[in-house]
Amino acid sequence: MKPTQVNKQKGFSLLEILIAFSILALSLGILLKIFSAGVNTAVVAEDYTAAVQIAESLMAKTGVETPLQANQASGLENEKYHWQVEVSPFEFNPENVDPTALTAVLFKVKVTVSWGDDNVNDRQIELTTLKLINKTL
Description:
Layout: H1 14-61, E1 71-77, E2 81-89, E3 104-115, E4 123-134
Antiparallel strand pairs: 1-2, 2-3, 3-4
């Protein structure tokens, strides 16, 4: 070798490789965090969907399978969702109307579905509607 020749090696230095690996590790960590947050959001959305379906089902049954009268019922669905149905008379008195002249009665139906692992982070939904029945004379 001649002393005037410069030794030109092609390739990456150890420092360049370490920097590239640390950037790659940081990027993968951020991507995994984003994906896990997306999965958690999907699980929560699935729980809310199931709870709404349970509440709508219970609301539809009220007055059809069970008589529409003031009462409370509760139970457990799928070993996870606690539900409660409250039926109460809906009180309204429009002006100049005799309450005895009304031929129908309104009932307020409130369905609450809750779920969760502990009491601190429990989630719940509540659906409320009015149902009408003929007044028996």
